[in-house]
Design a protein that fits this description.
270 residues, single chain, mainly beta, 4-stranded antiparallel β-sheet
């Protein structure tokens, strides 16, 4: 069994082996207080031990649909100090999204029991990520195994309304195979900053990924435009500026989205 004592983020080869706990910040910015406490080690003094371990934690911002352990550090959202005290705390304000906390000792291989707590004004659920890959549903067991993992980072859209006209309430939908991810609604915004990062474990890597922009209406929603992405099976980060087609984007006024993608081989034998 792989050791979960990976040390701090300076130890890149082992850092992500540490325990990982995920939580969501929904709809608006949230002030959180994270507290990491280690066991009382004074009982070990009679054996020549009893010193506190240097402890701390990192907070990573990850894909909004991630449900398995992080395999690559993408964005550090916050970091505590490392101290040889019973507890280490961090107070900060986080934007909407999904986050993973990694409690660690400073050096790899140091073991000890710990308590991790998270406090917030709204209800935030903290849960451990145990699996390296998402667990398939009953129906997915009969499908081919995923071969490619692709990250899609929808950064922003532009030109969603002509000058001097009221901008629509908009949201985006990202579709890949049977997975659908939707952003929150951006009120009266002609150039929304979505900053949406999603991850897809793909069984059919040659199938396209689609992105749709929708306008929220009183009675029904309407499509502003669509775009398609075709990614290779293994590529480093790649940026796209894509003109939207179909829907209301067929007008003369150009509308576009800015997207970044990266893909890698899916390791199903972790």
């Amino acid at each position: 069994m792989r050791s979960r004592c990976g040390g701090c983020i300076n130890h890149r080869d082992t850092f992500l082996h540490n325990p990982q706990f995920v939580f969501d910040v929904r709809d608006k910015e949230e002030e959180v207080l994270i507290c990491l406490q280690q066991e009382d080690r004074r009982i070990r003094r009679k054996d020549g031990g009893g010193e506190n371990l240097p402890i701390g934690f990192e907070v990573l911002k990850v894909e909004v649909n991630r449900c398995s352990r992080v395999q690559c550090v993408v964005e550090q959202a916050a970091s505590s100090v490392y101290m040889d005290s019973r507890s280490v705390t961090l107070r900060g304000t986080l934007s909407p999204g999904r986050y993973v906390v990694l409690p660690t000792t400073f050096l790899p291989g140091a073991t000890g029991n710990f308590l991790l707590r998270l406090f917030s004004h709204s209800h935030v659920r903290l849960r451990e990520l145990r699996e390296d890959l998402p667990c398939p549903s009953v129906f997915q067991c009969y499908l081919p195994q995923p071969t490619v993992v692709t990250t899609v980072h929808l950064r922003r859209a532009s030109g969603l309304s002509p000058p001097k006209q009221t901008a629509p309430d908009v949201y985006a939908v990202v579709r890949c195979e049977n997975d659908t991810i939707r952003t929150r609604v951006f009120k009266a915004d002609a150039n929304p900053e979505f900053n949406l990062r999603t991850i897809f474990y793909r069984r059919y890597p040659n199938a396209h990924i689609s992105i749709e922009l929708w306008s929220r209406g009183r009675l029904w929603d309407s499509v502003l435009g669509r775009a398609r992405l075709q990614t290779s099976e293994s590529e480093r980060s790649r940026s796209y500026v894509i003109d939207l087609r179909g829907g209301q984007s067929s007008s003369d006024y150009p509308r576009s989205i800015y997207v970044e993608t990266s893909s890698s081989v899916c390791l199903t034998d972790l």
